[in-house]
Amino acid sequence: MSSFDELRLPPQNLDAERGVLGSVLLMPEALDDLAGLLEPDHFYSVDNQRIYAVIRGMYDRGVKGIDAVNLSEELSRLGQFDDVGGADYLWQILDEVPHAQHCRYYAGIVRDKWSQRQLNYALTESLSRSFSNCDTDELFETAQRLVGQAVEQRHTGARHQSLADIVQSSLRRLDERMKIAAEGGITGVPTGFIDLDKHTTGLQPSELIILAARPGMGKTAFVCNVTERMARAGERVLFFSLEQANIELMDRLLSSVARVDGAMIRAGNISREEAAKLFAAAGEIETWPIYLEDKPAITMSEITAIARRLHRQEPLSVIMIDYIQLIEAADKKMPREQQVATISRNLKFLAKELGIPVIVLAQLNRDVEKRTTKRPMLADLRESGSIEQDADMVLFLNRPDAYDAQDQPGVAEVIITKNRAGPCGIVTLTWRRELMRFEDCSFYGGGL
Known about the structure:
Layout: H1 3-7, H2 14-26, H3 46-60, H4 68-77, H5 86-96, H6 103-130, H7 136-154, H8 163-182, H9 194-200, E1 208-213, H10 219-232, E2 237-241, H11 246-258, H12 262-267, H13 272-285, E3 290-293, H14 300-313, E4 318-322, H15 336-354, E5 358-363, H16 367-370, H17 384-390, E6 393-398, E7 411-419, E8 425-432, E9 437-440
Helix pairs in contact: 2-3, 2-5, 2-6, 6-7, 10-11, 11-13, 14-15, 15-17
């Protein structure tokens, strides 16, 4: 075999593979350490795959005294003894491994080489597809999915912790929270709304938060207001605006920050004083750590890729997505509810992977408008099953004056309907329609 051919071999380490097999033959209980870490297909050699699979099968059945002799009998019974190299190969394995102390180390090498082969396959398959006539968006999505799977598989495996370790971690977190509380702070990322933050203790790491409402209630305005408050506090926000263009979102921010009527901005009918306010607001906004993405028909894979890239550059504080029903499904042939279920679950995975809260807007169905009581409930979520299940917190936005102009004008409710980490309840805010702005009721001296 030429040196060029050797370079073309897939990543593998046959010495480490034999090291694993020899170790478990010398000390079968070493398999306890390999649970969830090493599977037969992680081996490159087909013979080694077969031997490990048979050993695992014997171990899982509770066979006592797993050694070269018993393994030989089992391989013979299955008709595989000669196929894997017979007695000569089994004794070679034992001869190369004097003890079983390095079993987990060998297993780590075997798994690493398998991970490299998975990545090799993903890149090769992507390259092959690039020479075909497939759609460009489909090509990029497939490549990202394949590479993403290789990355995820590399980090899967059992990661057991003792109760003592978990207790100590919990106590350290409690100590941190006590220090924050003693200083009058909150433990999560603050929304900037005083009563809401008191009720939720902020948005917690790895949480998926759903904010849902009927059209026209001000969902986008609310998350824009939250984004503004977070940015003022130095939090890094990634905002996916799937319904509005970035420039339209900026008009909302300018109106809210400068406190200039949004309708007047759209009409261009503003005074010199108002223009000065807008320029001052623009100067402030452009310094904020906010990243806007308004690509239409964006997929979950693209959202994940953008979030990962920015988070690697400098950790993000929160991700906002407006809104879940506008995220494109990877498989458009699936039933819509199944599409949303997959997207919802992947959003939760993203929050957990990056360790930050992800706020996702959602539409409600029309049932809420058919009832006498207009306050939303969980059953009003469109494609509600999966969204409700995956969410750590579900907030509903409700304004009584949206249905009756005389019913509590200017009052808005944030209804906490689901909260895994705390109580549910209703937080009352003030709604400034002309500014597309929600404010604490205390802004007017204690509410309306």
